[in-house]
Amino acid sequence: MIRLIFALLLLPLLAGAAPAPRDWSKAVTRSADGAYVIGNPAARVKLVEYLSYTCPHCARYAQASTPTLRDTFIRSGSTRVELRHATRDRLDLAATVIARCTGPAGFAATSERIFATQEDWYERGTRFEQPNAARMALYPQGAKLRALAYGAGLAEIGKARGLSDAALTACFDDTAALLQIARMSDASWKAIAAASAPQPGGTPTFVVNGKAYATLDWAGLEKILRAAGAR
């Protein structure tokens, strides 16, 4: 009898011990062509973002979208985002290498930090690049980008995410990775042009469940995502 009473008392406690829902914002993979994919692979809403780290519109979008897109839509499993680089200049490429150097586990947070501090490192990088352009022109591509990343303060962002000087050097010297970024960027700009025609395209450009949208801010995109099933 005592055992039966104890079991009956325990049942409500066991029933309330349901496992916590999975946080899909921690699920990050890299596609075969190098794009980073964040969220539930089976998500109802599939968002593609073409981004540039030196694009001020992208920085404003990142700041406005993160609280809802990452912490609600992606976290819940209703939405998946695929991030594709559309590099615009050398500083953008240097920032791209830093973000990707942190790998799947650190990519999203590093990207957010790069966008959050864009004004600072972009100004520093521009000031550094102008007087040092002739000297850096003599460097190999990887060394040139690495010097620019250090001069702009981008390397500091990578180090704050746990990257050592040796790790940063290895990422900038990885010619295969640089070629992959170049190929992705070329494909991205072609996709952006197609989405924006007949107007010239820019970043950020979005694709939601196969349909492209250009010149959208977060408020406009949020409505589209919610209509598609983002929760």
Please sum up the structure shown.
It holds the Pfam family Thioredoxin_4. Helix content is 61%, strand content 12%. The chain has 231 residues and is of the alpha+beta class.
General description of the model:
The chain has helices at residues 2-15, 56-76, 90-101, 103-116, 118-136, 141-152, 154-160, 165-172, 175-196, 218-228, and strands spanning 28-30, 36-39, 45-51, 79-85, 205-208, 211-213. It is α+β, with helices and mostly antiparallel strands and 231 residues long. It has a domain at 24-117 and 177-228: Glutaredoxin, CATH 3.40.30. The protein has a six-stranded mixed beta sheet with strand order 1-2-4-3-5-6, sandwiched between helices. The chain starts with a helix and ends with a helix. Residues 4-14 have low confidence and may be disordered.
- Helix-and-strand structural type: alpha+beta
CATH class membership of the domain at 24-117 and 177-228? Alpha Beta
- Report the uncertain regions: 4-14
How many strands, what sense, and barrel or not for the largest sheet? Answer: 6 strands, mixed
What is the multimeric organization of the chains shown?
single chain
- Chain-averaged pLDDT: 93
Strand order of the largest sheet: 1-2-4-3-5-6
What is the gyration radius calculated from CA atoms? 21 Å
**CATH superfamily (homologous) name of the domain at 24-117 and 177-228:** Glutaredoxin
**Count of DSSP H/I helices:** 10
Q: How much beta, percentage-wise?
A: 5-15%
Output the helix-strand order. Answer: HEEEHEHHHHHHHEEH
The tally of strands reads: 6
Distance between the termini: 48 Å
Helix content: 55-70%
Query: What CATH architecture label of the domain at 24-117 and 177-228 applies?
Result: 3-Layer(aba) Sandwich
CATH fold field value of the domain at 24-117 and 177-228? Glutaredoxin
- How would you describe the shape? globular
